[in-house]
Amino acid sequence: MSTNIYDTANTLEKELRDSEEYTTLVAAFNEVKKDEAASKMYYDFQEVQIKLQQKQMSGEQITEEEIAEAQNLAQTSGENDVIKGLMEAEQRLSTLIEDLNRIIMKPVQDVYQA
């Protein structure tokens, strides 16, 4: 009897939600939401990132001022311990997802590397 690949994917999704990396991310994000200063910095930075991505996708030139604003917000955010905790949690989860993606994509890579 063959396993339905979607059942496997749904199991993986549940296990990801139960992972230490994911639960740490959720806790870190909740800490950001509870801290007024950290929350404002986070959402301000997110807004600038989205604005820059939209400009880039539409082919508009990003100004030096916009780059400086994004860099300044990134630096200021990185100095906040609550946001720093979130960034570290995001990195750990990202590493896990990259590892899972490598495993999932191995059969496709094997096709092209054979």
TrEMBL record:
Classification via SUPFAM superfamilies: YheA/YmcA-like
UniProt-listed InterPro entries: Com_YlbF, YheA/YmcA-like_dom_sf
Pfam families: Com_YlbF
Highest taxon listed in the record's lineage: Bacteria
Sequence similarity: Belongs to the UPF0342 family.
HAMAP family linked to this entry: UPF0342
Protein name: UPF0342 protein GLO26_05030
Source organism: Carnobacterium inhibens
